[in-house]
Amino acid sequence: MLFPLFCAVAVLAAAAVPAAGAPSDSAHPPGQGGSVVRTDHGLVRGVSHGSYSTYDGIPYAAPPTGSLRWRPPGPVATWRGVRDATVKGQRCVQMPAPGAVTVVGAEDCLYLNVTTPTPKRAGGKRPVLVWMHGGAFLGGSGNDYSAEKLAVRGDTVVVTVNYRLGIFGYFAHAGLGSAPPFGLADQQTALRWVRANAEHFGGDPDNVTLFGESAGALSICAHLTSPTAAGLFQRAVLQSGSCFMSFPQGALGPATPAYEPFASQRDVEMTGAQAARQLGCTTGGASEVLACLRRESTDHLATAQLMQSFNRPAFGNALLPLAPEEALRTGRFHHVPLIQGTNHDEMRMFVGLSLAAFPIRTEEDYRGRLADAFGATAPAVEAQYPVADHPTPALAWAAVLTDRSLACTTLAADRAIAAHAPGLPLYGYEFSDPDPPTLAGLPANPDFPYGAAHGFELPFLFSSVQTEEPLTDAQHALSDQMVDYWTNFAHTGTPNAPDAPLWPVLRSESPRSQQPVQSLAPGPGAIHTVDPDSAHHCQFWDRQPR
Fold first, then answer.
1. Could you say which of 49, 223, 454, 537 is catalytic?
2. Is 326 tagged catalytic?
3. Which end of the chain is more exposed for a tag (fewer CB within 10 A), N or C?
4. Which of 308, 291, 400 minimizes the C-alpha distance to 347?
């Protein structure tokens, strides 16, 4: 369907996986037997790693298999004795890699992992951070993110979550009625588990910060506008995925369609009916069709074509009544403190993945991509982004897409939030390291540095995210500061602390030129406020049709 997106998903999903030779679903070093904790469904025993403990593979919902496929998450069965929480649960079924002959992951995958500092804090509860992974709603797993630095340095309890993906998480059909997007329903069920169990791990159920990147951030955007998420979290951090994010036609390759991250219930149901016909489930009424589809094996459903057909959560149901962008524009969202930001060179990751198939070597190549994406307005875009202002035509194209798709749409979302909630603590950032380590698995392209591309901030928060090079001393210092900002926010609702560069609040009454965000980069004085609205040509993009 979208070849560059396919590759991007594979990279994002694999970037955090431990290196070859390490256990595939464990990012923690070996530890000692941990303490036993009582959850609302039974006892679990984790692993002590000295300064922190981990409790992995805890079920938060019933396995969505058999007759429970394409149903909202059901309750977990209570267990007897002490459950082993030393090994992570299966990741959810993933988008298959090119040439793959076996399915990666399983439908029985609704597990979460808890990391907590040791010992428990005397006389107090720690804030809880709940991580939603990215991967275009097609790949990735909470298993891939080792959270010990956020837990120990930040004095927080961290929970990472698996949720259903692709056709298993975002399928819809008329026979299901207005069923919610199952992957988002999984996430809300995990948040209810956190509310019921946080205290058992030393966490505060009334101080939960939801944070995520890419599809994880888009998930949080959905929860911000979801009536059924009310009270499930008190703060949120959205990394590279605002409610306004979209890609123009041709962004992911010549002639590829425009991308909007959410779709109407009707559109997804139509795609579901097409899938049923493709799979030969056409006999009888809606219930018979669904019974036929539920009998299909996992591997018959987990094809590239079918998985990619269902990676947009549907709106027009109880969980997501409105398109999140519309809900944000009209003020129908939960007013909780927010951090929202992007990376300086977001779309270089997507462009870099596609250059072998769709090279952009010349000015003519660049103009062809502009014409494909912007039609009659292409000359105006070129006037804003002449090739002469960039080292190569490919980097010019990446700059256009970064500004149009992520940088300016995130700032527009900030303005919508601030307009409807003028007193809300709202903070913006731009990850701006000009030479961060490259995520593992990305192709090397001559004359095309990735810079601060999509996902490149992740190794600064999670030690398990695999990169081609280690962090430098200056980057380790930046990592420390970013962890401090994120966890200060979890503790207090502001990222600021007395010994850190001040991070300003975004205010609705200030002119656009006075809406600075925090630039996050390594080196002395590199953390400072910047004006992304001007740097990314956002007033120009605001005048362009979507």
1. 454
2. no
3. C
4. 400
Q: Which of 214, 226, 309, 519 is catalytic?
A: 214
Length of the chain: 546
Q: Are 183 and 313 in contact (CB under 8 A)?
A: yes
pTM equals: 0.93
Q: Is 117 helix (H, G, I), strand (E, B) or coil?
A: strand
From the CB of residue 397, how many other CB atoms can be counted at a distance below 10 Å? 25
Question: Do residues 135 and 162 make contact, with C-beta atoms less than 8 angstroms apart?
Answer: no
Assess contact for 41 and 77: CB atoms under 8 A: yes
346 is catalytic: yes
- CA-based nearest residue to 26, from 135, 144, 148: 144
Query: Is residue 519 scored above 50 in pLDDT?
Result: yes
Q: How do residues 320-334 score in pLDDT, each as one tens digit?
A: 999 999 999 999 999
CB contact set of 29 (below 8 Å; sequence gap of 6+): 49
pLDDT tens per residue across span 165-195: 999 999 999 999 989 999 999 999 999 999 9
Among the listed residues 107, 346, 430, 457, the single catalytic one is 346
Token readout for 177 is 């009625």
Cβ count within 10 A of residue 398: 26
Determine the Cα–Cα distance for residues 285 and 278; give it in Å rounded to an integer.
16
